[in-house]
Amino acid sequence: MALIRISIPADPTADNAWLGTNSRSVALALNLVPFAGIAFLWFIGVLRDRFGDLEDRLFATVFLGSGLLFLAMTFAAAALAGGLLRTYANNPSLAADSNLYGYSRAVMYDIVNVYAIRMAGVFMISLGTIWMRTGLMHRGWAIVTYVLALTLLLSIGYSLFVSFVFPAWVLAVSVYVLIMNLRDKTLKATAGETATD
Length: 197
Description:
Elements (H helix, E strand, L loop, with lengths): L1 H6 L9 H5 L1 H29 L5 H34 L1 H6 L1 H36 L4 H16 L5 H37 L1
Helix pairs in contact: 3-4, 4-6, 6-7, 7-8
C-alpha cells in the first residue's frame, strides 16, 4: 500500500506522468498484492480459529463477508492499475489520449477510497463486537477497534492517514495474537513439565 500511495497521485484527475516515472514501483507493489491477500486470508482464518465455539453466527458472517469483500475490491483495484500499466507500456499515446485512463483512475480511486475502506470499517466493527461479546481480546482492543473503524466509515475524501489505519491495525492485532499464542504455548509447556515432575 505504501508503494502504491507514494507512486500513484491521490487526485484521480491528475495527469498520467506517473505511468512512465513510477511504473516499476507500482509493478512491484502489484506483484506483492496477491501475497498480501494470502496473508490477510490467514489473518481471518487465525481470528476465526480463536473464536472456536464462541463464534456468533451473525457477527462472524459479517466479519467474514466484509473481509472477503475488502480483499476482492483490493484485487480489483490492483487489476485496474495493472491494466493501466500494461496499456501504457504497449502504447503510451493511447493511454494519454483516451478516456480509458480517466475512467480507470476514477474507478480505482472509488474502489479503494470509498468502498474498500468502508468494508474495512465494517470488518473492524464486527470483529470488535465479537471481542466484546466473547471476551477473547482485551476490552481496550475492542474500544480502539471501534474508534478506528468509525474513522474509516466516516472519512470523506482522500487521506493518507485513513488509508493506513486498516493495515496498521491488522499488523498490531497480528503481533498481539502471535505474542498471545506464543505465551499460551509457553504456559502449556511449563504446566506439562510441572505435571510430569
